[in-house]
Amino acid sequence: MNIKKNCLASIVAMLFIAAANLAAAQNNTLTAKEKKDGWQLLFDGKTTTGWRGAKMAAFPAAAKGWIVKDGLLTIQASGGAESQNAGDIVTLGEYSAFELVFDFKLTRGANSGVKYFVTLKENSGASAIGLEYQVLDDEVHPDAKLGRDGNRTLASLYDLKTSAKAGATRPIGEWNTGKVIVYPNNHVEHWLNGVKVLEYERKSPEYRELVKISKYKTWQDFGEADQGHILLQDHGNEVSYRNIKIRTLK
Asked: Model's pTM, two decimal places?
């Protein structure tokens, strides 16, 4: 009886490992349908091709900075300061109307962010300026309690509009999938794990009123560029990304 149980346990373990390996092999790849639909990978799972530092021409090489390992693009912990170690990274390309999808995994208390319409024209002294899909441990990180009405929490439009994500968030240490859709008419949506959590009209009077009461009020025409880079933020905490892909919308 014990022999049968041991054999069954071994088979289950092998099947689990095989399934995990298959899932890992499918990360950072595109299906034939995705390719046909115009999707492009922004991270190939092996290199930093297509990215550079937000404040430099090359990819940052700082200790405790960005690393590529096991199919993940990870910013390592470095004390929690905003863009003061390796710094943010941006895509070489710029985008206007698009659908962006990315997986992210937070460590306890971590802070990061995915920004879009980043022009790199502003000299902020910290993280580069842009519209931000907040990536944050809401329970632990103090930034979740700042801002207005929770507009600095996970999947929110940082410091502008709060996400309605009740029930959509997965636990710290598990993978979440974020999505930003910017339509050609400037309608924008944030999604989290298949749930639409907020929407707004970029460049609209309502949007500009939100900017006026935010930390971005000092930046002229904030978030209204016709095109810009995609940015991953270094906020001094360990956060991993994978399956970063984008397609242009017309």
From this structure: 0.90
